[in-house]
From TrEMBL:
Gene Ontology terms: cellular component: nucleus
Residues annotated as transmembrane: none
Family in the record: Belongs to the NR2C2AP family.
UniProt keyword Coiled coil, yes or no: no
Subcellular location: Nucleus
Biological function: May act as a repressor of NR2C2-mediated transactivation by suppressing the binding between NR2C2/TR4 and the TR4-response element in target genes.
RNA-binding as UniProt keyword: no
Main location: nucleus
Protein name according to UniProt: Nuclear receptor 2C2-associated protein
Length: 139
């Protein structure tokens, strides 16, 4: 059965946080299921989120909810097992809106994922994400 794979033991890292204000815009807001909070990146040519899972997972979908005007036109998902180098799993192309967007992922068994977001719709390259979900199953 497919369910959200991000758990309290999942370690996350992000490329940047707006004004380094982790209290208001930090990575924890990607996963808190709160409609009022978000991760807000600082400016840059690309932004990324790395997730290290406590056990191997089989990914089937990636869900992202951006703030319209602060989304990405192009993204890619990479993954690895153990100490292997990251390898590309899939490219995806988000729309610039406020909807929760679902991207299918070819079956991949990993314990680390990297979501890279490029070509931001914001002039300064900032990205705002309210929800980031990795769906699939534990292996």
């Amino acid at each position: 059965m497919t369910h959200s794979l991000v758990c309290p033991e999942t370690v996350s890292r992000v490329s940047s946080v707006l004004n380094r204000d982790t209290r208001q815009f930090g990575k924890k807001h990607l996963f808190d299921q709160n409609e009022e909070t978000c991760w807000n990146s600082d400016q840059g040519p690309s932004q990324w989120v790395i997730l290290e899972f406590p056990q191997r997972i089989r990914v089937s979908q990636l869900q992202i909810q951006f703030q319209g005007g602060f989304s990405s036109r192009r993204g890619h998902l990479e993954g690895s097992q153990g100490s292997e180098a990251l390898s590309k799993i899939v490219d995806f192309y988000p729309e610039d809106n406020n909807s929760l967007q679902t991207f299918p992922v070819p079956a991949a068994e990993v314990d680390q994922l990297k979501v890279t977001l490029e070509d931001a719709t914001d002039f300064f390259g900032r990205v705002v994400i309210y929800h980031l979900r990795v769906l699939g199953e534990r292996v």
